[in-house]
């Protein structure tokens, strides 16, 4: 059924029945210093391998960077074997990583997280605390994407959705990108 048109004093009423053409997963990297999306990957899945491919493309943009800091939430792929292996590849000396699920750095998610958060490494991951995703500025950018592109939109295919998201990333970087200004002072919100 078609949407119900806008009338004076009433916004468009969107029909709730729709045909689902599939979903897409977006992995994006926000540069907090510039406010730009440095890397965006849109695909059918968000697996450990997808994150690895995304991060390798991101790191290829700055191969000489002496230190790389990534802020991530506690999603299991953010503490994966492939991310540990990527971080280990960036170290000047080879590291013994052990065997996933059995020994060494790869033994558990806790040992992998401890390795990834070690400030002595070239690639350092900073995990936001559980239930504090608002600390991760990419979440703010995702809300912009939803408000400006996805809400009240309809896409005829996954390919169209993917193209629109990547076009929005390009548009955002050209016209809207700027560092987010934090203004929370640490004072309680109530008097």
From TrEMBL:
Pfam families assigned to the protein according to its UniProt record, in alphabetical order: DDE_3
Domain Tc1-like transposase DDE span(s) in chain numbering: 4-162
InterPro entries registered for this protein in UniProt: Tc1-like_DDE_dom
Protein origin, superkingdom: Bacteria
Name of the featured protein: Tc1-like transposase DDE domain-containing protein
Naturally occurring in which organism (per UniProt): Halomicronema hongdechloris C2206
Highest classification ranks of the organism: Bacteria, Bacillati, Cyanobacteriota, Cyanophyceae, Nodosilineales
């Amino acid at each position: 059924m078609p949407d119900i048109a806008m009338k004076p004093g009433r916004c468009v009423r969107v029909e709730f029945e729709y045909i689902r053409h599939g979903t897409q997963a977006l992995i994006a990297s926000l540069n907090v210093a510039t406010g730009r999306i440095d890397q965006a990957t849109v695909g059918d899945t968000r697996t450990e391998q997808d994150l690895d491919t995304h991060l390798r493309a991101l790191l290829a943009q700055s191969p000489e960077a002496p230190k790389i800091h990534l802020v991530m939430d506690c999603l299991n792929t953010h503490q994966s074997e492939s991310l540990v292996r990527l971080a280990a590849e960036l170290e000047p000396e080879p590291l013994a990583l052990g065997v996933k699920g059995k020994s060494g750095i790869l033994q558990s998610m806790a040992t992998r997280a401890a390795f990834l958060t070690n400030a002595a490494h070239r690639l350092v991951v900073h995990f936001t605390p559980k239930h504090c995703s608002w600390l991760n500025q990419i979440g703010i950018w995702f809300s912009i994407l939803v408000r400006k592109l996805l809400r009240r939109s309809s896409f005829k295919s996954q390919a169209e959705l993917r193209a629109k998201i990547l076009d929005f990333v390009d548009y955002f970087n050209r016209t809207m990108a700027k560092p987010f200004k934090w203004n929370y002072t640490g004072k309680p919100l109530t008097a």
